[in-house]
């Protein structure tokens, strides 16, 4: 589900601000009823009309991008830096990233125009697994990673338990490679978790998201998700929410 004005904007009816004006003035119906509330949420099955004309909503599309370094996880940037939608010039639909990866972080990023699924995957109550490989400063030991596995307090709030595995340690260069799986999506979470145990992240790559991988892709390349993969994401999100209860 997502806000009515956002759906209208995505459908090309008007800007979000203009869509809000149309709603406020009673020009919009949802399932045959006039709505004037800005907080109305609609799903893919709802029928939306503007002045009696049904809006032509885009067919939902789903993509997996191997995000390179130094690219913004956004549809535009006021500093004119590269953004993830730059890689999708051949895609007609207005897509956007599900969540974000930091400017200097690489790896798997989902792109879609399906606000309902996007909101589900990003909502705190749904805990879909995301696996990263981090190169961190210093020699890391099991005693360090156990702190992450138990959950660690960041900004006054404890993280959910993680799953970590030490891949390698370079005592000469004083660096370590660690795989970590988290089930949340706080801003800069992985970097902040390692910083909290005094092992700052030097490089970070998201390897998997809800069972999806980067197999066959190089940085900057993307592929369309198959139907069963989209369904898998929905199932994983719903199962994680049920298991949390």
From TrEMBL:
NCBIfam families documented for this protein: pseudouridine synthase (TIGR00093)
Which PANTHER family has this protein been placed in?
PSEUDOURIDINE SYNTHASE FAMILY PROTEIN-RELATED, RNA-BINDING S4 DOMAIN-CONTAINING PROTEIN
| Organism expressing this protein natively | Carnobacterium divergens DSM 20623
GO BP annotation list: enzyme-directed rRNA pseudouridine synthesis
For this UniProt record, the keywords arranged alphabetically read as follows: Isomerase, RNA-binding
Q: Which residues form the RNA-binding S4 domain?
A: 2-59
Database matches in SUPFAM superfamilies: Alpha-L RNA-binding motif (SSF55174), Pseudouridine synthase (SSF55120)
Family according to the record: Belongs to the pseudouridine synthase RsuA family.
Matches recorded under CDD domains: PseudoU_synth_RsuA_like, S4
- List the Gene3D superfamilies: Alpha-L RNA-binding motif, Pseudouridine synthase I, catalytic domain, N-terminal subdomain, RNA-binding S4 domain
Q: Which InterPro entries match?
A: PsdUridine_s_RsuA/RluB/E/F_cat, PsdUridine_synth_cat_dom_sf, PsdUridine_synth_RsuA/RluA, PsdUridine_synth_RsuA/RluB/E/F, PsdUridine_synth_RsuA/RluB_CS, RsuA_PseudoU_synthase, S4_RNA-bd, S4_RNA-bd_sf
Q: Name one GO cellular component term.
A: cytosol
E.C. number, please? 5.4.99.-
Record's PROSITE patterns? PSI_RSU, S4
Q: Name one Pfam family in it.
A: S4
GO MF, one annotated term = RNA binding
Q: Under what name is this protein listed? A: Pseudouridine synthase
